Structures are given as structure tokens and as C-alpha cells.
Amino acid sequence: MEETGGVGGASAYGASLAGGSFDFQKFAKQPYTIVRFLSWIFSIVVFSCITAEGFVNKPHKPEAHCVFNQNDSACHYAVGIGVIAFLACFFFLLLDAYMPLMSNAKERKYAVMADLGFSGVWTFLWFVCFCLLASQWSHTLDVGGIPQDAARATIAFSFFSIATWGILTYFALGRYRRGVADVTQSIYAEPPPEQHTPYPPTYAPSAYTPTTYSPYPSSAPDDFQQPPFTPTPSTITSTQPQGDYQPPNY
Predict the structure, then answer these.
(1) How far is CA 72 from the centre of its chain?
(2) Which of 119, 190, 236, 242 is deepest in the core (most CB within 10 A)?
(3) Cβ(125)–Cβ(81) under 8 Å?
(4) Considering only CA atoms, which of 106, 113, 114, 108 is closest in space to residue 88?
(5) Which residues contact 121 (CB under 8 A, 6 or more apart)?
(6) pLDDT tens for residues 91-148?
(7) 57 beta partners
(8) Strand 15-16 relative to strand 55-57: parallel, antiparallel, unpaired?
């Protein structure tokens, strides 16, 4: 399985966003590490078989030609594909080991995209190499003096390389998809609300202290009582009827 991020931290493209330390045992047990190492071995077998025994010369002829139907282009193509695959496997092994130390998600994205693109292209190129070598070997009529075991091993390991590089492409695609999903989730995820306080820390209400007011001082005695109402003569006169009302004449 793919390695995941740190405990309780956000992860992207196979490791924690905060970075981590390199664990050799964990790295060696990863499936893509094992498959990449096999691809590295297969590439060595292909180009070493051709460079050591892929060119032979006929009797009484000083010039050496490719054992695959004397098609030198086929041998040169297989050697070129094998050497570049050998160097690429070594480079991506180092990149996989350095991946947990990257704290930048964008750098990991570029690394995984490079792995995905190269693995996909080299899967196709190994398929072309296998078809070319198998076709040229089937047209080779004179096999006298030709190391047939080396030729067959080259064809077989070219076919094995198709499978290993195809698996690497699948792993890289899975890492890319999971990385995009992890980054998207970390961007849009909302922080969990705090359960110990009903308000955020910034808006928590302070303790209310009521203001006390002293009573307004009064000079009047507390036992003061208003005297009862006594009618005056003027009020009695004004309230008594004055007789019949006579309107004025104009």
C-alpha cells in the first residue's frame, strides 16, 4: 500500500505536508519500490545482452552486425531504451526516497507527474522494442554462430519491462489522484468547532458588572406630609352659579 501522511496531519501525494524522516525499511517494502527495482534489473539485462553478444560477424567478414536479422537499428534501439530506463529507474528511486522529506505539495505534484509521464512513455517504448526484436528474430534465418540464448533473453526481458513499467504507470496515476484529492480536501475542509465554549475566543462576552447609583440627596424631611385642601372664599364664589346667563347685545 501507499505510504500515508503523519498521524493527525494533512497529507499529499503519499506523505505528510509537514515533511517527515526517511525510513529505509518502509521504503524498501513499498510496492512501487520493488517494481521499480525489477525494472532497473530488466533494463540491465536487455542492454548488457546486446552490448556483450548482440553483434557478431560472419565467417570471413570483419564487420559485426546485429543478431536480429542483421538489423543494427534494432540493436541500437534496444540499447538506447535499456540505458535510459536504467538511469531513469535510479533517478526515480532517489526521488521516491526523497519524497517524504518534501514539505511543499506543489513539488510533490511535479515529481509524481514526471513519474507518471515517463512511466507511460517508456511502457509504450518497451512495447515497440519487444515487437521490433521479436519480428526481426523471426526473420533471422541463419542462426549459426549466433548466441541464441542472449537474443531470446533480450526479447523476454523486453516483454517483462512492458509489464513492470505499466505497473509503475498505474501506481503513479494512483498517487496523483490521491494527492489531488488530499490537497483539495485540505483546502476546503472547515476546522471543527470547539466544544468547550459557546463563543469563539475573539467574540467571547466579558463578565458584566452592574453600575450602582447612590440616591439623590433631599433636604426635605422624610416625615413631611402635604396639608389637607381647604377651600378659600374666592374659589367658593367662582364655583357658585351666578344666575341666568344673559348674552350681550350688539
Answers:
(1) 45
(2) 119
(3) yes
(4) 114
(5) none
(6) 999 999 888 888 777 888 899 999 999 999 999 999 999 999 999 999 988 887 888 8
(7) 64
(8) unpaired
- 5, 26, 27, 7: which is closest to 16 by C-alpha? 5
CA-to-CA distance for 46 and 40, rounded, in angstroms?
10
Q: Which residues contact 194 (CB under 8 A, 6 or more apart)?
A: 200
Q: What is the grid cell recorded at 108?
A: 510533490
Answer yes or no: are the C-beta atoms of 6 and 18 closer than 8 Å. yes
For residues 31 and 37, give the distance between their C-alpha atoms in angstroms, rounded to a whole number: 10
| Amino acid sitting at position 4 | T
Residue reference for cell 503513479: 172
Rounded to an integer, the average pLDDT of 56-72 is 85
**Of 125, 145, 126, which Cα lies nearest the Cα of 70?**
145
Q: What is the mean pLDDT of the chain?
A: 78
The model's confidence at residue 202, banded by pLDDT at 50, 70 and 90, is low
Whole-prediction pTM: 0.67
One-letter amino acid for residue 5 of the chain: G
Query: Helix 105-138 to helix 148-188 angle, to the nearest 10 degrees?
Result: 160
